[in-house]
Amino acid sequence: MKRPFVLAAVMLGMFLAAIEATIVATAMPSIVADLGGFSLYSWVFSAYLLTNAATVLIFGKLSDIFGRKPIFMIGISVFLTGSTLSGFSESMTMLIISRFIQGVGAGALMPMATTIIGDIYSKEERAKIQGQLSSVWGISAVTGPLLGGFLVDVLSWRYVFWMNIPLGILAMLGIFFFFHENIAKQKRSVDYLGSVWIVIAITSLLFILVEGGIGIPWNSASMYGLICLAVAGLLLFVIQERRALDPMMPFEIWKHRIISIANLTSLTTGMILIGVSSYLPAFVQGVMGYSATVAGFTLTTMSIGWPIAAMAGGRLLLVIGYRATSLIGGTSLIIGALLFFLLSPDKGPVWAAAGSFFVGVGMGLTNTSFIVGIQNAVRWEKRGIATAANMFMRSIGSALGAALLGGLLNSRIQTFIQNEGLESKVSVDTANSLLDPQQNASLSQKVTSVLQEGLTSGLHLVYTGLLILAVISFILIYFLPKKGQE
Fold first, then answer.
1. Are 213 and 404 in contact (CB under 8 A)?
2. Is the model more confident about 430 or about 40?
3. Which of 152, 235, 147, 240 is nearest to 193 (CA)?
4. Is the pLDDT of residue 147 over 90?
5. Which of 8, 73, 395, 458 has the smallest CB count inside 10 Å?
6. pLDDT tops 90 at residue 200
7. 270, 395 in Cβ contact below 8 A?
8. Span 422-448, pLDDT tens digits
């Protein structure tokens, strides 16, 4: 086995899944201006994150049974299918369906990349290598926003999806030719029923958060039905996992304090990450009035902070331990969220970029610490699912964050429209026009003013949420076990 080649292929696979968060966010204003459907804005992220979150545990478990290689190859194939279809989308609905498919592929890519590294490197090597792997999140996103802005401004938003195809094929060839593993043949069952219940629970919850009060009234039979479905799905998932012979989510791994705290923190940091990457371009373009390239720059700084912190974190771990490293990361998250909370149209893109940078540093330090700590806490046969469980919690956080923060934004814009008595003339979808200079010029002064105030107010609400989540993350990190404790 040629480890450098395997590492390169794995990093390329992670690059594909990681770049989706920022490159698509940069292209979203142009996509919405072209396809319409501003009220579906958050679904483009939620769809990807939903299937990612719902399948990551299944793939993690399957890799512990059948090996990492076949699952990684399946993941890239599905991901590239979704990317191709996304680029050909002619409506927002088709794009969202294509993103569902992309998310399934990412559900295999993310945990497999990290688990393969855990398998082929020793405990001592892992901290350094996982730091490099975590930095892919940043490196991918350094190029992501700038490349996204460039492709949108020069070619078309469709190339944001099509650029994945040659990179994905390279990653597949690397794993196919250079990664060899010996799997002990053993009869183990796959907990398919558990995955069905968790998919039902997550899907219902996302519909509640995204459509509540907008597409579906809070006080309606449909809403009550969704709430019942979400609660029932979650309860049945827990019951199934407790009685399954080979559960998809073995609850005993949560008895390790490092795993339970790291997973809960990943839930909140996942919400912070999507809050920044999804809605910062909308603020820079819709409120500040800058171009897609400038919006990309403000996200790029998060991506610069992430790899620097991840590489430093890999070394810090060996000196001060994962708890102290994570605490520094948690402090950085609070600083970044505070800058966003204080963000206003007159502050300019540099202020927004500074907030992004600190959030990136926080993500780089915490992410590296968590993965190394988790993989050192379990043996090979549990490493796939333990790694996947952490990814699952971050994906759930991102999915819930996209839905919850998107719901807050939509309802705030709706409130501004109602307060001005403009329901008959405009809707939340009219906010599309703020993101397109030509369409913006066709709106009346009053409508533009109301929509901009609504968007500004809604995004401030989103950033208030980010600050609260950053504080919660820091408190959780404080309870991580000290060295030598479990």
1. no
2. 40
3. 240
4. no
5. 8
6. no
7. yes
8. 766 666 666 655 655 555 566 677 777
Contact yes or no for 466/337 (Cβ under 8 A): yes
Q: How far apart are CA 207 and CA 15, in angstroms?
A: 29
- Residue type, position 278, single letter: S
Q: Nearest 5 degrees, angle CA 294-CA 300-CA 302? A: 130
Please, which residues have CB within 8 angstroms of residue 221's CB and are 6 or more apart in sequence? none
Residue (of 468, 144, 132, 464) closest to 293 by Cα position: 144
H helical segments located in 245-291: 257-282
Tell me the C-alpha distance between 430 and 423, whole Å: 11
What is the pLDDT, as a whole number, of residue 328? Answer: 93
Give strand pairing partners of 212: 216
Q: What is the pLDDT of residue 484?
A: 43
pLDDT at 485: 44
Say if CB 439 and CB 238 are below 8 A apart. no
Q: Is residue 300 a contact partner of residue 357, using CB atoms and an 8 Å limit? A: no
- Burial annotation 366-399 (CB, 10 A radius, 16+ → b, else e): bbbbbbbbbbebbeeebbbbbbbbbbbbbbbbbb
Contacts of residue 399, Cβ cutoff 8 Å, sequence gap at least 6: 46, 49, 50, 52, 53, 202, 206, 270, 274
Please give the model's pTM, rounded to 2 decimal places: 0.71
H helical segments located in 88-187: 92-120, 123-154, 159-162, 164-178
Please tell me the distance from the alpha carbon of residue 239 to that of residue 445, in angstroms, as a whole number: 57
**Predicted confidence band of residue 135 (pLDDT cuts 50, 70, 90):** low
Rounded CA-CA distance 276/20 in Å is 14
- Report helix, strand or coil for 37: coil
Q: What are the residue ranges of helices labelled H in 342-444? A: 349-377, 380-419, 437-441
HSE, CB side, 13 Å, CA atoms: give it for residue 467: 14
52's tokens: 């990612």
* Mean pLDDT for the chain overall: 80
Measured in whole angstroms, how far is the alpha carbon of residue 423 from the centre of its chain? 33
Copy the structure tokens of residue 430. 């009219």
Structure tokens at 473: 């993350």
Cα–Cα distance for residue pair 297/146, rounded to 1 Å: 6
pLDDT digits (tens, 9 = 90+) for 209-261: 667 766 788 788 988 999 999 999 999 998 998 888 777 777 777 888 888 89
- Residues 144, 296: Cα–Cα separation, whole Å: 8
